[in-house]
Amino acid sequence: MNGDIGGPADFHMPYGLPPEGGAARDGGRSTATYGTRVSGPVRYLPVLLGGEVIGYLYASVRGNAASYIRRLGARATREGAEGAVEWARRLRAAHREGLTPQEALERWIGAEEHPHAGAVPVGTGFAEAESYEELMQRANPGYVEPEVPQVPMYDSEGTPLDRDQPGGWGPIGPLRTEDPEGYRMVSLTPVLYYPVLRGGAGLGYVWAAEAGDAAGFAPRVEARGAGYRARTAWVDRFKLGKREGRTPLETIRWWKGAAEDPVAGRVPSEAQEQRAADSKALNLLAQDQTRP
Questions:
Q1: Which runs of E-coded beta strand occur in 220-280?
Q2: Neighbours of 264 (CB within 10 A)
Q3: Same structural domain, 114 and 164
Q4: Sign of the CA dihedral 1, 19, 197, 289?
Q5: SS3 95
Q6: Is residue 53 part of a domain?
Q7: Do the beta carbons of residue 183 and residue 248 sit within 8 Å?
Q8: Most buried residue among 59, 82, 129, 202 by CB atoms closer than 10 A?
Q9: Does one domain contain both 261 and 166?
Q10: For residue 209, how many C-alpha atoms fall within 13 Å in the half-sphere facing its CB?
Q11: Is residue 5 part of a domain?
């Protein structure tokens, strides 16, 4: 890789644009923006905020991809997410104007620094990486693309919801219910929850125990991979909430009304808190099996 500026960052799931080829998609509908994943080399620019590298803009050498990779650990989760949303907005605007991916990035070299999205310094030239994956490792060393589970999903006792699958008539082993860095992941008592949306499409439900130290995210079947990526992002938010001393309920309420994150989605400011019997009931709701 050619030289650039930056260094190691704390590892979390990157909150970039949806990692899908071609036009980015939202709930199964194409959106007017560039693709985000590429095969082959990419050209990129560092993005700074207050003198610190917070991410990288990249464009495919071949094809029609352009996006922003957030360098995690550089900024607080919520502030960094708002920066990623701003870059997504800018790239959509450039796509509507008919700019090529590289032209979309060049227009921001030397522009005024945004309070969350930062800026590309005056005189910065493009560097090149051999692949998207190489640039991702530059931004977030040690990052591994999470494996997306395939339906059928399993209930809180480890039993497939689809009884025709192997093990469908008996437990296949307990699922993990503890996160040493976050809250408990299963609640056997009532939970309060909010819907989580991205671009108006439902990703799932974020929940917290009404009393107790448990919180989680139940991805909707229809959201497919986007729902599972959102769950990973919310797990990082739970870890942050616990580190900062918030209860599970305080954490999910803290994110209500925040700007939409390209991966984690958003809890609308007008969303009403709802109640389910336990986390298993909410998982069944997300699977469209029943209502809590």
A1: 274-276
A2: 27
A3: no
A4: negative
A5: helix
A6: yes
A7: yes
A8: 59
A9: yes
A10: 14
A11: no
Tell me which DSSP letter residue 166 carries. T
| Intervals of the chain under pLDDT 50 | 1-31, 146-179, 289-292
Q: Which two tokens stand for residue 5?
A: 């500026």
**In which domain, by residue range, is 213 found?**
149-292
- Give the position of tokens 């917290």: 208
Number of domains observed in the structure of the chain: 2
b/e 157-184 (16+ beta carbons within 10 angstroms → b): eebbbeeeeeeeeeeeeeeeeebeebbb
User: What are 123's two structure tokens?
Assistant: 């005189």
The whole-angstrom separation of Cα 248 and Cα 240 is 11
Rounded alpha-carbon distances, angstroms, from residue 113 to 57, 83, 123, 178: 15, 11, 14, 41
Which of 139, 171, 203 marks a domain boundary? 139
The verdict on 285 and 167 lying in the same domain is yes
Q: Which two tokens stand for residue 14?
A: 């990157």
